[in-house]
């Protein structure tokens, strides 16, 4: 093999994004699936109506072929795209490779390439109004000029990345104020901007991030604030292009965190600016993947301080009062305050190391989303748990589901068989069928009942007075106050919960709760709702304008075979939510919550916003 061929067969990573109108999402998915699979590329491809965001790895020659193919599609749609290609080692750590998505090829259609906010925005920013691009040289020159001359009070540097990224690397320029929002995730940045809006007004704002895509939307959001926010600039190509232009690091100190198996990329300057969470020594290696036990954000823990049975609490959770002291373990009736090989006297008073008993093969237990589940009409917690077993199994790594019974107990009912004609005009006179045995019947419950409901329940069976009415859910509108009181007690005794999942009538109840979210604040706090086969009740509590609560709507399409809840009823409910923070998943699986791909992937994507 020639030296040139050996060189092109080295491993590499390719990053690029492009904001552009995608004419056909399915065509784009087909292209990426075919091209990446044929070239042996692994990684993440996200496609939205507004563009693509791609991070893939493979042989350099294959990555170059991929770039040529991308440039040739859709009449030069990607001709001006900045393709950031870097040679590197192949993934060595299976855990890191898996977390960064480099053990498979993941191609998904998403609503947004990056999620600026997990809450509805009064006005979504237009990407065409993003800050002016500055090349690495122009960005450096702007900073160099201020550094050499005099303090420029009108210039601020704004880091658009997360705290775990800025811990190990950031720009540091004398005489220039650098703002580090210290957010856990990008979707928190818009709230920080809103809080600091007076501090930013009238300033020349220079923004930067890893590769540029987060600055596109964030700079547009700042400029959307109007007068006083015209001078917003962004580092084109991000820190990656800057370090290529200035190999010694320039004004950037430390390492650039990247979202692939490399973890971080540094300059020729070997200085470390990160510190261990426990002992505060210099340390910037995230390869151990230690995480905060509360919010799951990555934390830096040096090799000497790492312990498999320990839990860590990040600096943000400490500020929120979530830092906890070593807990006592009870073993054979004797109190223990230490772990094998760990002497807590060796740690300072602000140490955040917790003993933890391993659970099965999951030694490092992650914090999961807690989701309260509300069953449908004439169901109970047990039956709903059984019906959602596949869903809970597939989401067990990220979510814990809590199932409860509704407060209105329903009577057992049965329908007698319709008399069968013995001839053209004679009906059989056989005695009515007896009710089914009740010994093994589980109680059934509801969130809403009919206005004429007498509250009777329990042991005896009742013969229904009419055939099954598929529209009965429209008439079950009473009982809201009792259900709300019941749920307030559940939140108080079993909370907190990150979100609420409702199915059928449970979804109608969940919708009412989300419509009253501000009114219920302090009694029932949650971040999102999932409405499956939902519908809206015609009650005054739903008359509140657009519901500004992040929501996922899952229901059967027009041909989805849901014989209980009409497709239009679920669509109408979804239309009541602010479109900027709602996701709709239509399926063809009937009156269920689908768990096969691509539906489960969309559910995971939605929940991922809140991890």
Automatic annotation (TrEMBL):
PANTHER family: THIOSULFATE SULFURTRANSFERASE/RHODANESE-LIKE DOMAIN-CONTAINING PROTEIN 2, THIOSULFATE SULFURTRANSFERASE_RHODANESE-LIKE DOMAIN-CONTAINING PROTEIN 2. Gene3D superfamilies: 3.30.70.100, alpha/beta hydrolase, Rhodanese-like domain. Residues 151-251 form the Rhodanese domain. This is Rhodanese domain-containing protein. PROSITE patterns: RHODANESE_3. CDD domains: RHOD_YceA.
């Amino acid at each position: 093999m020639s030296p040139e061929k050996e060189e092109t067969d080295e491993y590499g990573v390719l990053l690029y994004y492009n904001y552009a109108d995608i004419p056909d999402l399915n065509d784009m998915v087909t292209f990426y699936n075919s091209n990446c699979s044929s070239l042996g590329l692994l990684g993440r491809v996200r496609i939205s109506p507004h563009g693509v965001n791609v991070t893939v790895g493979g042989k350099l020659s294959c990555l170059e072929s991929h770039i040529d193919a991308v440039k040739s599609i859709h009449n030069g749609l990607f001709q001006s795209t900045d393709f950031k290609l870097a040679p590197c080692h192949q993934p060595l750590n299976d855990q890191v490779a898996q977390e960064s998505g480099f053990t498979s090829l993941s191609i998904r259609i998403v609503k947004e390439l990056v999620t600026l906010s997990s809450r509805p925005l009064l006005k979504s920013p237009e990407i065409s109004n993003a800050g002016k691009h500055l090349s690495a040289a122009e960005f450096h020159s702007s900073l160099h000029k201020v550094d050499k001359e005099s303090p420029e009070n009108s210039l601020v540097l704004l880091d658009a990345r997360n705290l775990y990224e800025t811990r190990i690397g950031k720009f540091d320029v004398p005489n220039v104020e650098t703002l580090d929002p210290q957010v856990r995730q990008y979707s928190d940045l818009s709230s920080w901007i809103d809080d600091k809006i007076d501090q930013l007004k009238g300033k020349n704002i220079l923004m930067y991030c890893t590769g540029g895509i987060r600055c596109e939307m964030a700079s547009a959001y700042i400029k959307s604030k109007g007068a006083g926010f015209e001078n917003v600039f962004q580092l084109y190509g991000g820190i990656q292009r800057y370090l290529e232009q200035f190999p010694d690091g320039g004004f950037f100190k430390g390492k650039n965190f990247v979202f692939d198996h490399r973890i971080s990329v540094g300059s020729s300057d070997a200085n470390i600016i990160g510190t261990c969470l426990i002992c505060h020594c210099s340390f910037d290696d995230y390869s151990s993947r230690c995480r905060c036990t509360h919010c799951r954000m990555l934390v830096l823990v040096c090799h000497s301080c790492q312990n498999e049975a320990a839990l860590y609490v990040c600096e943000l959770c400490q500020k929120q009062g979530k830092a906890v002291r070593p807990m006592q373990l009870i073993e054979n009736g004797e109190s223990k305050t230490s772990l094998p090989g760990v002497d807590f006297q060796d740690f300072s008073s602000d140490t955040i190391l917790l003993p933890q008993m391993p659970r099965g093969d999951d030694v490092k237990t992650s914090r999961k989303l807690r989701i309260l589940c509300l069953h449908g009409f004439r169901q109970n917690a047990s039956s709903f748990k059984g019906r959602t077993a596949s869903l809970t199994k597939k989401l067990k790594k990220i979510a814990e589901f809590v199932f409860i019974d509704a407060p209105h107990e329903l009577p057992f009912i049965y329908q007698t068989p319709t008399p069968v004609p013995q001839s053209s005009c004679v009906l059989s006179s056989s005695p009515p069928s007896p009710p089914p045995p009740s010994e093994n019947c589980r109680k059934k419950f509801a969130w809403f009942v009919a206005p004429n409901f007498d509250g009777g329940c329990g042991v005896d069976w009742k013969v229904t007075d009419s055939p099954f009415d598929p529209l009965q859910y429209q008439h079950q509108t009473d009982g809201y106050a009792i259900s709300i009181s019941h749920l307030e007690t559940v939140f108080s005794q079993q909370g907190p919960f990150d979100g609420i999942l409702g199915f059928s009538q449970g979804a109608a109840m969940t919708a009412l709760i989300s419509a009253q979210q501000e009114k219920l604040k302090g009694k029932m706090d949650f971040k999102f709702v999932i409405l499956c086969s939902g519908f809206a009740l015609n009650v005054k509590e739903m008359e509140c304008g657009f519901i500004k609560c992040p929501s996922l709507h899952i229901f059967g399409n027009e041909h989805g075979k849901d014989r209980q809840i009409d497709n239009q009823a679920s669509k109408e409910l979804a239309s009541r939510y602010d479109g900027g923070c709602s996701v709709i998943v239509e399926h063809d699986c009937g009156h269920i919550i689908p768990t096969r791909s691509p539906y489960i992937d969309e559910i995971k994507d939605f929940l991922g916003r809140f991890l």
